[in-house]
Amino acid sequence: MKKRRINLFGIFIIPIMIMSIIGILSMNNENNSRDRTNILIFGIDGLETSNGKGTRADSIMLFSVDHNGGHPVLISIPRDTRVIIPGRKSLDKINHAHAYGETELLIDTVEELFKMPIHYYTKISYKAVEELVDTLGGIELNVPIDMKYKDPYANPPLVIDINKGTQTLKGTEALHFLRFRSGYPNQDLGRIAAQQQFVNALVEEIISPTNLLRAPTIAKTFLNNVDTNISKGNILYLAYKGFISKPNELLRVTIPGSSKMIHGISYYIVEDEDIANVKKQYLNPSKALATNIKIEVLNGCGVNGVAARVAEKLEDHSIAVSEIGNYEVNNLQQSFIEYESKHKKDAKKISKLLSIKKLIEREDEASTSNITIIIGRDLEF
Predict the structure, then answer these.
(1) Residue boundaries of the structural domains of the chain
(2) Which of 43, 185, 275, 361 is deepest in the core (most CB within 10 A)?
(3) How many helical (H) and strand (E) elements, i.e. helices and strands, does the chain have?
(4) Where does 295-375 sit in CATH, by number?
(5) Residue numbers in the chain where pLDDT is lower than 70
């Protein structure tokens, strides 16, 4: 399974995640009744004319979070994936669904593919790419190869002319950099690597001190160039809470499959088993611990704040911590977990989450906590 790859409109995942979490938090009662909230994110292949009617989806991604806005995962769906499009007589490429029936049919198609509901959507235009990059003042990139390409039939006509080397790309050039397909020695893998380079540069630019001060303008640029049914309030606060404070928690995966020519047309073939494995690994609801369990975290390594950081990590995974404090020694080398016998399974879940190998079952269960986590110097927090 391919991890940490991203397609053309992946550069907008930061604000999309923010907006997605906004929608989730603004509908608490509704979302508490389901384990995960799923948001379809896609770009359209051309100008935003007549709301994108007749245009194909250029990039299709499924963003999913749990009911607390945690455990985020971004699943890329290759545009050539051969799927059932509801109402069509034969299998077709998934990116054609938008051309046949716009957003509604694309959502129906993804729901059919994953056999699960899509709750929200966000549609992005080429204009959004250009304006965001220009708002940031451009993006510095090391262009890996000379990018030369012409397509007079594209809408608008496409002329890509970017020289190899380090340079600052403005909005239109950045869009061309992302759209460039031919010329990479390893074709799509080369394009994906270039796009990942762009994503990293964009993230650094967005979270730079200068641009954080311009966050309202950046947010306005984004919001003016997307079509979504997610609430747009509180975006700046959630920008910090949802991404900037924890930039490494998002999992990025691509549905596994293989390329195949069928009747002279190139498709990306995904088996039902591949979808089932993706759902099992990334979209299953997190298994909660037993109810009314009391968990204590103690600092045994002498590093200030480590117990609080461990407690925060547990709470990010919907595991409530009852108390934090200091252990009887402050130079403990190996972390360990003490647990009451009836909470052995819960202790194992926590040990796996925190990568703590040593577990000790208590003989005396008179402790005020059911599980105690003692942090030593072997863990990094």
Answers:
(1) 2-283, 295-375
(2) 43
(3) 12, 20
(4) 3.30.70.2390
(5) 1-34, 45-54, 67-70, 155, 186-193, 195-196, 232-250, 285-291, 365-366, 381
